[in-house]
Amino acid sequence: MSGKPTRALVLAAGLGQRMQPLTDKLPKPLVRLGGRPLLDHVLERLAAAGIGEAVVNVHYLPEQIEAHLRNRTVPRITISDERAQILDTGGAVKKALPLLGDAPFLVHNSDSVWIERQGSTLARMIDAWNPETMDSLLLLAPVAASLGYDGSGDFAVGEDGRVRRRQRGETVPYVFAGVSINQPHQFADCPDGAFSLNRVWDEALAAGRLASIAHDGLWMHVGTPAALADAERCLDGLNAA
After folding, report:
1. How confident is the model at residue 160, as a pLDDT?
2. pTM score, whole prediction
């Protein structure tokens, strides 16, 4: 089955250790930014882009996330229970596949938020999706327009639009911005248990079926208390403008 994605998996099972002490008694997806939990920022963007159903995986302090989502209807929420074992990004997708269906789907980190310049980034990503030529489509953010990230980048994009990974010792202009579109068949040969989405992305890259779209605006990786404070200041400045 092909077409545009209408479902998403939101990754909310992490331990949030880098966000301590805020996550000592609170799961990171419920840490507030701009007065709203990070998870709500993600779900509201998904709904605005036409995603009608979202699977949310849980592991750390799962009851809090379940209680927070109990009355949400847009998008409709289903829980993927990882209480027994945290499964990393790829393993989380494999476990959630029965809930995601047969069509392509989004995967969205719960700590990835942004400021948009022109319309919905997710809607633009969905519009760019082409299952005939892509197995995975990654949202990339320019390192120069990122907050909460201080690495050397993840990807370069050639003049022909082809994506390549950063080589050892190299600095590249784009960082993975925490959102991807993927196809169910990519996980058919993957093992049960924990593994990274990088496994299926590397296979797509080798087959010439890994694509990307660049975010137009400021991307914020809200992974630490310092990054959260920076993001708050950024939003305050935007609201005051």
Report:
1. 80
2. 0.95
